[in-house]
Design a protein that fits this description.
Blueprint (H helix, E strand, L loop, with lengths): L1 H17 L8 E2 L7 H7 E3 L6 E5 L10 E10 L7 E9 L11 E2 L1 E5 L18 E4 L23 E5 L6 E5 L10 E2 L6 E6 L3 E9 L10 E6 L14 H26 L1
Antiparallel strand pairs: 1-9, 2-4, 3-4, 4-5, 5-12, 6-11, 7-10, 7-13, 8-12, 9-10, 13-14
Helix pairs in contact: 1-3
Length: 265
Amino acid sequence: MKKFALALGISLTLIGAATPAHAVAIQTLATPNMSASTFDSLFQPIAQAPEMSSPFTYLGLAPNASGVLESQVFAGTGAAQGYYAYAYQVDVNNTTDSSGSPVNVQSASWKFGATPQGTDLTNLGHQSYAYSISDGPIGSLSTPKAAPGQAILSPATLNWEPTTSGGAILASFVNSATGVPALQAGGNSATFVIITNTPFAQQFVNVQSPNPIDPSSLTSAYAPTGGTVGPVPPPVPEPATLLAWAGIASAALLRRNQKSRSAKS
């Protein structure tokens, strides 16, 4: 136990030394899978925040919508009591742009005015701040659906950025490691859910793709506002990792002491 405490102290010192004092805190939130049935057992729809389908249209394609951003807010019950679940889904219509190429969505971003809250609602043994649901619909959101030639896509990265002017979420479907360029036409993304303890408002959403958004097309989604904004706690390293770091630190201190004794002699 003493060795573990020593390892923890040394490791946390190393983490602090390696982190720039004024670094911009952009954090990637893992999105472990949660079943629709598990979500339904933990969260209930809120009458004041029903499902909102906000269309977006790429330049030159009006009046037809190119896709829809769906969002809905849920209140926690039981083990999730006191939390709000902000659920999002990106749907891309099966249509083409002016050059005949199928439309797609690379990413979407919006203001998110409260720090995501950690929970362990899927019993993973560690805190999760967001979840992905792909096996069925929740609330009044659409059923996740794979685009032709793709699997059902969750965001490849879900980034949280706390700033002095409020937080922001960036959900990106581009995954260079697996060769996924975007959420393709005809697909409904998996529903991704972010957990907070702050009530809802509406925010405008910026949708990114190779096609520019029509200036008259303003997309909105539910998001918290007025909450505390800051980084989420970093994951706690496994004990074996802590001991490995401690070993490295101890070896470095030993070499330093040996050099010091050699210099004195």
